[in-house]
């Protein structure tokens, strides 16, 4: 009974945290201000602080469910596909870990303790080969915030999560870098 109460309290706290984030995003108008031009200006105009701000904004944006492609496009346009890709990989990796740790601290591993047959089967599959499964999920869904939240609540160990994330992000980021580089080149032929 006490464990169930704690689990529900953690879920309620997590829900309130997410609602507070959404309210903060709406109040500050981050979606309107955090755009391609702003990110490019920060990266281009402030070499060191712009990089740090880019990483921090990526982490905050990911928590707020802002699309990651904006960050990738800005990095590729400003720094080129290789440097932009590397920066995005670092920022995306740190963002995923930041989200995982934050959500795990607030919500714990509540879904790991579910008594629902469907959830138990899904989690058993995840925990059988956690690194491989996180790698596959990350390759398909990249930095999807919902995935980060779900994995944080699943009971997956941080080490397995980080390893799967680091191995799963390079391919989709590389593909997107090539895609955005192609679009930039097509829009601005030399």
Question: Treating each run of at least 4 consecutive H or I residues as one helix, how many helices?
Answer: 11
Domains, number? 1
Unreliable stretches (pLDDT < 50, length at least 5) are none
β-strand amount: under 5%
Main pleated-sheet profile: none
Helix content: over 70%
Can you tell me the overall shape? Answer: globular
Task: Provide a brief overview of the structure.
This protein is an all-alpha fold and 190 residues long.
Based on the model shown, name its key terms.
globular
Structural overview:
This protein is mainly alpha-helical. It has one domain. Helices cover 83% and strands 0% of the residues. The longest helix has 27 residues, at 2-28. The N and C termini lie far apart (68 Å).
Write the layout of secondary structure elements.
Layout: H1 2-28, H2 30-33, H3 36-45, H4 47-63, H5 69-79, H6 81-107, H7 117-128, H8 130-141, H9 145-153, H10 158-168, H11 170-187
Helix pairs in contact: 3-4, 3-5, 4-6, 5-6, 5-11, 6-9, 6-10, 6-11, 8-10
């Amino acid at each position: 009974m006490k464990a169930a109460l704690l689990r529900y309290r953690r879920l309620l706290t997590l829900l309130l945290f997410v609602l507070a984030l959404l309210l903060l995003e709406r109040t500050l108008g981050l979606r309107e201000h955090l755009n391609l031009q702003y990110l490019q200006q920060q990266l281009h105009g402030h070499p060191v602080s712009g990089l740090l701000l880019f990483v921090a904004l990526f982490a905050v944006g990911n928590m707020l469910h802002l699309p990651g492609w904006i960050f990738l496009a800005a990095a590729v346009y400003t720094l080129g596909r290789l440097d932009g890709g590397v920066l995005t990989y670092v920022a995306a990796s740190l963002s995923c870990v930041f989200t995982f740790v934050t959500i795990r601290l607030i919500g714990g591993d509540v879904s790991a303790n579910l008594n629902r047959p469907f959830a138990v089967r899904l989690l058993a599959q995840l925990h059988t080969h956690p690194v491989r499964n996180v790698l596959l999920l990350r390759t398909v869904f990249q930095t999807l915030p919902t995935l980060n939240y779900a994995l944080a609540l699943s009971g997956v160990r941080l080490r397995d999560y980080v390893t799967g994330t680091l191995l799963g992000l390079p391919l989709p980021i590389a593909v997107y870098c090539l895609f955005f580089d192609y679009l930039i080149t097509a829009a601005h032929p030399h």
